[in-house]
Amino acid sequence: MNKMIEVKNLTKIYGKKDNKFTALNDVSLKIKSNSTVSIIGKSGSGKSTLMHIMSGLDEPTSGSVVIADKNIFEMSERKIDSFRANEMSFVFQSFFIEANATCLQNVMLPLEIARVSITKRKKLALDALRAVELEDKANVKAGTLSGGQKQRLAVARAIVNKPSILFADEPTGNLDSVTGDKIMNLIFSLNKKLGCTVILVTHDNDLAKQTDMRIRLKDGKIESIDEGKK
Amino acid sequence: MFYLDIIKRALRNLLSSKARTILTALAIAVGTFALTLTLGASNGAQDYAQNIVKTNFDPSELFVSKDSGLFKSQDASTPQLYDPSYGSVTTFGGQTRQIKMLDNSDIQKLAQIKGVSWAQPSINVSLQYLTRDDSNKYIGTLTTYNPYQNPTLLAGKIPSQLQDNTLILPEGYLSALGFLNAQSAINQTVKLSVLNQGASNIIPGATKSQVSNFKIIAVYKTPNTAISAATSLNLYASLGSVENLNNFIYQGTSNYQKYLEAVVKVTDGTNATKLNDVENLIKAQGYGVQSVVDTEKTITQIISVIEGIVTVFGIIAIIASVFGVVNTMYISVLQRTREIGLMKALGMHRKDISRLFRIEAGLIGLLGGLIGSILAIIGGTALNPVISSKLGLGDSKLLIFKFSQVGLLIIALIIIGIIAGLLPARKAAHLDPIEALRTE
Ligand SMILES: Nc1ncnc2c1ncn2[C@@H]1O[C@H](COP(=O)(O)OP(=O)(O)O)[C@@H](O)[C@H]1O
Ligand SMILES: [Mg+2]
Question: Who contacts B328 (Cβ-Cβ below 8 Å, separation ≥6)?
Answer without folding.
Answer: B20, B24, B364
